[in-house]
Amino acid sequence: MQIKKREAESLLFNKLGIAPMSKKHHIGGYLIYKGRRILKYHFSHGRGDMVGNVGDIFRQSFLLDELQFINLLKCPLDKEGYINILKEKGRI
Amino acid sequence: MVSRLGEFTATNEYLSQNRIQDKTIYDAEDKIDETTETKKDSVMYNFTVINQKSLEYKNIFIDSLNSETYKLKKLISVTIEYDNKNYIARNYDLGLYGYGDTEIEALDYLKELIVETYEELKDENNLSSTLKLMMIYCKEIIEKK
Questions:
Q1: What pLDDT, in 10s, does the model give residues B87-100?
Q2: Which residue in A32, A35, A48, A65 has a CA-CA distance of 20 to 30 Å to B50?
Q3: What is the value of pTM for the model shown?
Q4: Residue range(s) defining the domain that contains residue A9
Q5: How far apart are the first and last CA of chain B?
Q6: Cα separations (Å) of A17 from A31, A79, A80, B133?
Q7: Structurally, how many domains does chain A consist of?
Q8: Which residue of B has its CA nearest to A28?
Q9: Which of residues 2-61 of A touch B (CB under 8 A)?
């Protein structure tokens, strides 16, 4: 699965409202729900788009299958819907 | 030195159980000397020389976090994966990964992420079950220098 860096940034920092935390190798942050840190996401600063297995591993960090993740990335699934999926999975 | 020889044996066994082909393993003692001189914190991956084309996965153990503040209490297992585009270093116990153009880059990314996650979450009480489990394991393996 290939994920454009721009799409990942937009997903994390705009759609999910995650506060970005930047380090030497990566940028990322935590999904926070009702004051509780739920999951951590991150990707590399300098390597551009996520290609090969990295895209899949990034997707797995959202605990979503491929279809759900594409829906989250491309819009039909909003933050509330994503939170509901995590609730169903018992992660919230 | 003794423990590194033990780790070499572990790698050898791991390789023999997996589908990695065309492997050539150098003499253990020579490689240990070389490794000790050149890379103080890499354990094992210099011991195993594998034809790049057939490399898919290998398990290594790391003994440091490249941190001035924190160190590992014990060796932790890291799987290095190469997918023809990236080297990916993953620790399945923590559920964390790093990636890069080289194994070292991927490992540095992972180590930085482990330290960062530990620093951010060690005093945090309001965590999801996933992050709580991650912190329990972090506290088992990380301590201040």
A1: 999 999 888 999 98
A2: A48
A3: 0.73
A4: 5-88
A5: 22
A6: 8, 9, 12, 24
A7: 1
A8: B113
A9: 21, 23-26, 30, 35-40, 42, 44, 47, 51-54, 57, 61
